[in-house]
Amino acid sequence: MYEVLLFDGGVYKINELYELIEDVGGFVIQKTQVQVQITVTLAIPEEERPAIEAKTVELGGKLIDVPLAGTEIAVVAPTLGRHHMPHPTCDIAEQLRRAGAITVVMGLARGKGRRTAQISADEKAVIEEYDAAVFVLGNFKDCILEHKVKLFEDLEVPVVAVCGPEIDDLPSCEGLVCGVGRKVERMRREEEIHKLEEVGTTIEEVVRQKRKELDEDPLFVHPAEIKDRIAELEEVQRSLRPAPIVLHLDGLRVKIPYAEWKDQIAAVEVYGRRLGDIADISDSRLGGSTLIRIKTRAEVESG
Fold first, then answer.
1. Using CA atoms, how far apart are residues 50 and 146, in angstroms rounded to an integer?
2. pTM listed for this prediction
3. Which of 15, 16, 201, 298 is at 20 to 30 A from 145, Cα to Cα?
């Protein structure tokens, strides 16, 4: 299984790190250089970490765990109005960003009130484009158990539920964190920060489990390998959108229009094969973006 890390150091002899990453069968996910300092997000086989750590010490840098790098996660609240919890929702999203994830905050269209709280087919389709979802549910136990649990019961992506009351178990979710209730201010106190860390740890475990499941039937190529080739497209290089290519556990989101660029994306060559032959390419529900889902080795070989 791959482990995602962040190298933080200087640019001096940085090519030696890149060569070592390639030698151990790893990938560079992202580079960010500011003058003579550089941060490199990388994915390597877990057993090769000591070699990377030794090279990091040699280069005078430091290695930071970013377990959610290479993922895109939706943080969902019934609404984003003050009736619910905009402050904890945004704080949770920020906590996940610090662990390396790309996050988006969503409010449902019919979320206000226990009897009207619902999720539409379009909203489900949007959420299922992400690697996982965190649902921030509210303060009332009976409301959560009888009504709001239905918001995510049919979702196929892993779900972590966050709520105020203490609940022993909640169906249809892979993780549960209690004690995060409605607030009218940011979560700054020590006990609140510990709760944010608990949310982060829970979603990290959910993502780790999903990575293990993918390792049982590995993808034909790692998403980072496709990212390097997609980045060469003219439209991607001209894009002014932040993070024009976003990695997922099983693919990528490319922020260029599907209808105009689907043929060029499908024609990208990866290990002597067309990308269209080793991945499913589709239009994103968010508009102006293209989704790429990489097929497993078994699917490619049988096809």
1. 49
2. 0.88
3. 201
Distance CA 67, CA 4 (A): 6
Question: Is the dihedral angle over the CA atoms 257, 258, 260, 261 positive or is it negative?
Answer: positive
CA distance 180 to 199: 9
Tokens of 110: 């019919």
- Give the chain's radius of gyration (CA, Å): 20
- Return the structure tokens found at 92: 């949770």
- For 157-195, letters b (16+ CB in 10 Å) and e give bbbbbbbbbeeeebeebbbbbbebbbeeeebeeeebeeb
Q: Is 269 helix (H, G, I), strand (E, B) or coil?
A: strand
For residue range 17-41, what is the model confidence (pLDDT) as tens digits?
Answer: 999 999 998 888 888 888 899 999 8
pLDDT in tens, 222-269: 898 898 889 889 899 888 887 899 999 999 999 999 999 999 999 999
Tokens of 190: 């020590």
